[in-house]
Every structure is written in C-alpha cells, then in structure tokens.
Amino acid sequence: MGQDAFMESFRSTVGIFQCKIYLLLLAGACLGLKVTVPSRTVHGIRGQALYLPVHYGFHTPASDIQIIWLFERPHTMPKYLLGSVNESVVPDLEYQHKFTMMPPNASLLINPLQFTDEGNYIVKVNIQGNGTLSASQKIQVTVDDPVTKPVVQIQPSSGAVEYVGNMTLTCLVEEGTRVAYQWLKNKRPVRTSSTTSFSLQNNTLHIAPVTKEDIGNYTCLVKNPVSEMESDIIMPTIYYGPYGLQVNSDKGLKVGEVFTVDTGEAILFYCSADSYPPNTYSWIRRTDNTTYVIKHGPHLEVTSEKVAQKPTDYVCCAYNNVTGRRDEAHFTVIITSVGLEKLAQKGKSLSPLASITGISLFLIISMCLLFLWKKYQPYKVIKQKLEGRPETEYRKAQTFSGHEDALEDFGIYEFVAFPDAAGVLRMPSRSVPASDGVSGQDLNSTIYEVIQHIPAQQHDCPE
Hints:
Elements: H1 2-31, E1 34-36, E2 41-45, E3 50-52, E4 55-57, E5 64-72, E6 79-85, E7 88-91, E8 99-100, E9 108-110, E10 119-128, E11 132-144, E12 151-155, E13 160-161, E14 167-172, E15 180-185, E16 188-189, E17 196-198, E18 204-207, E19 218-224, E20 227-230, E21 238-249, E22 253-255, E23 258-262, E24 266-276, E25 280-287, E26 290-296, E27 299-303, E28 312-319, E29 326-336, H2 338-375, H3 378-388, H4 392-395, E30 418-419, E31 425-426, H5 447-460
Parallel strand pairs: 2-11, 13-21, 23-29
Antiparallel strand pairs: 1-4, 3-9, 5-6, 5-10, 6-7, 8-9, 10-11, 12-14, 14-18, 15-16, 15-19, 17-18, 19-20, 21-24, 22-23, 24-27, 25-26, 25-28, 28-29, 30-31
C-alpha cells in the first residue's frame, strides 16, 4: 500500500511538472518568442567551415537575452558548446577555438568541420523581462567528403557474343563518403530486368546474356549529400547478326524478289545486313540445277548479254565469322525488252509536241504563200504592163463612125484612163462617142459591159 501511494504521488508530481512546461511554452508562443532555422538538416564538407543560421524574435520588453548552443550525438548526453548573455560570450574552453557566435545574432559558425562534428546542434534562446520566455530548435549536421570522378571497368573487355556471353560493368570511386551509385544508358536510368541486375551497393551492373538491345552509351553517376560526378561514356562490345539481309540494285525494276533488267543494260546489285562485326558476302548463281560461287564481296555487277534470256536465280550469302551465324537472300533476274517499251513511251510523250510543231509550220508556210500571192497577183502584173505602154498607142483606136455593118465593130476594147500631173484622170483625145443608151459615166465600165451595149448603140446610130 505504501509503495502504491508513493507511485501515485510521483505520477501527480510529473503531471504537474509537464503541465507547467506546457504552459510555459504556450505563454512563450503567445508572447511572441519564436526561433526559426532555414533547414533542419545541413550538409557540410570535411575541412571546410559550416554556418548554421538561426533567427529569433519576440514582442515583449526584455532586459536580458541568453543564447545557448548544445551538441549531442545518438545515445549520448548533450554537451555545452558556448553561450551568451546579451553580448557577452562564454565558450566551453574545450571548443573555444572551434565554435563562434556574434550575439545578439544566434547563428553558429563551425570551423573547421570534422567527422566528429556530425550530430545534432540545439540552440536555446531565453528572454528575461516581466518573466522568462524560452524557445529552442534542433539542427542535424552531416559531414562528408566529396566524391571524385568515377571510372567504369567492363568485363570481358574484348566483348561478348549475343545470347551466348555475359557482361559486367563495375563503377570505381577513389574518394567520397556515403556514395550512391546510379547506372545510366543513353542518359536514362537502367532498370532491373530479366537480363539485368545490380550488386547490393549498386556499383556493379550484370547483363546475362547480352543482346543487341544492350548496345548503348553507359555511364555511372555517383553522388552524396555534398557532391555529384559522372563517369566517361563507355560502350560495351557486343557481337550480333546478321539481321535484315536484303538485296537492292541501282537500275531495273524490283517486284518482290524479281529484278527486271533491260536488254543490253548492266545492273549493279548490292547486299546489306545489320551485323557486328561486318559480314562477309558471297554471290551464288543457280543454273540448270547447279550452283556455284561467282563473286565475293557486297557488290555484284550483272550484264544482260552475259545472262541467258530465261530467268536466272541468284543467292546472296552473309556470314558473321564471330557469331557463326549466316543468312541468305534469293532473287531472280529476268531479261526483257524494256528499252523498246521505253522508246515507245518516249515517242508517245513526244507526239503532242510533234503535232504542235507541225501545225505551227503549216501556219507559217500558209502565211508566207498568202503574202506572196498578194504581192505578185496577176491583175497587178497586167496593170503594170498597161501603165508601161505609151499614150500614142491608145490614140490610134478607131471610133464608131462610118461603119455600115455593126457586126464588124464587135471585139475586145480596152478603156484606159491616164492620170495627169495633178492626179486627175484624163481621157484620150479620140474616144467612143456616148449614145443614148450609154451615158458618159459608162465609159468607165468594164470590157464586158461595153460589148453588151454595142448592139444597142448600132441600132440607134443613123446611116
């Protein structure tokens, strides 16, 4: 019973003490005392200085400001580092040259930083005024060495055969603490798969077995809280292939595995496949149930004159002497009169142009003939001859007087008017007299009209 009473009294005392602490903190918060730190964890580099910034503020009159720094490690009691009242600093003599504080600034400078300085740093601020207000913060400090540039080693260094060999990549770092490893392929993280695995620390990458898809640019990225470095690019050697063997040509028509070659035309075939190392190629011809190698190398030139008119079968063989794999591509060459067809097509394509040219020549010739006809037509020739005769020949023309028989007056008459210098038409001095049936203006009529009117003139003429 006495022991139970003692425990009950102890619990009530502890409860009252906890309540007082809670009320004290609540009062401090209400009165505005607040201590803040930018980060609860700060990473430092060994051998360099580390600054721990601290800010505090309050809204009550204060006569004294006390700042205390404590240091603790896991499973140990906190140690006093230094303290101040107002602007007077009281350091622990053991650490007086290592820790620095400039009150009323509560920030702490650690110089130089060592591995033994890693732990939790507690800052406590007390304000003395109408009462005492207290607030504190804790900062975790880590100390590391920066990592150096890693180096990647690959085994086997000579390479591995696809689906047969395995490969191991190891990342080595000379300096650095708390190093984390990450493998990158073509700048992207490498994931665990059925053929890819990592060591416990992730510094080794295993690929078993290797495939063509494992080819790429590998790097090892190492980092810790204070540094980060990446290795140089390394590309593992993986032997594979051949894959995707195909035959193409610089001429001719290809339909599936059949090449159509023009008569008299030389055609160049080339064989290609994806492989490492590069394949060795050989060309085989099949004729009359026999096969024989005709050439080695990736190219083959075929002349249609040297090929029989019937279809000829060929085979391109690709062989990888490291992987031991081979592949074949079969194709047939057919000789046709493609050239004649091309010529006919060419003639068809030129026929519109020929038609246009013919029409143009016809129009040009027609225009030239029309021009010549207009320039040298007959009536102009006759006119020029008449104009060239002397005027005296027209004066000798007979008149219609004195003939007894009018039938003797029939004939072909010419009526010609000569222009004088003034441009006025002038009649010859002796002319045919106008009768009642023929007016003076009829003298300018054509020959046909004169012959038509002569009988009427003869009947009206007196004896």
